[in-house]
Amino acid sequence: MKTACLAALAAILTSPASGEIIISEIFYNLSGSESGVTEWVEITNTGASTVDLSGWVYGDDQDASYSDPFDAGTELAGGASAVITGQEAATFQSIWGAGVQVINFTVAGANTGVSLANSASATNETPAIFDAANTLVDAVNYEGGTNGWPAGNGESLYLLPSGFTSAANDLGANWGASAAGVDGAFTALIVNPDIGNASAQDVASPGFAAIVPEPAAALLAVLAISGLAFRRS
Predict the structure, then answer these.
(1) Which residue(s) pair with 157 in the sheet?
(2) Mean pLDDT by 10 residues, the chain (233 residues)
(3) CATH number at residue 128
(4) Which domain holds residue 180?
């Protein structure tokens, strides 16, 4: 018993410091005629350690449309979330609040964004992130309103508490449409100023993940079991 507990403890303590970065929110259908510049995805670091995102890339893997590498020094703390968008950080934060971490990107040096379809299917929209070695970290083929996926119309799609792994977030059943007051979602402070015909404030939860598995909780559980085992020996 002691051996098993110590092995589990060692596995936790020596687990990779890079954490696990997953896509946790997608906003593809904002109020008005949005563009790839104003659309965005949120990523969450489900690990305990800060991850260096320098040189990482975001894009639509189905359309082979990718951002330029993220700036050197871009990081995401353990348990934190950040929004990846072509919209200027100051503008985004005026809509959603100053506390949201924003990772801006360009495409071939231009601020054109990465467009996400409103009528997505199983074959045409896959937001994805790649690390600096061009290795796929996570991808989500969302299907708005079909095959068990919720639809968003002025509301983002967000990952439910049941879905916080890179495998579980592939399933539409683990996603929901944002509703103000539920799982951290709220109504935007203002109408998006970069969408000329936007008529309503959007609803989303940028920078807030509904739940993030806490590595410390697992560590405490193992320590408790280990202590019990030692007391019984």
Answers:
(1) 26, 177
(2) 43 45 96 93 96 96 89 97 97 97 93 82 82 96 89 96 93 97 98 96 95 48 39 43
(3) 2.60.40.1260
(4) 2-232
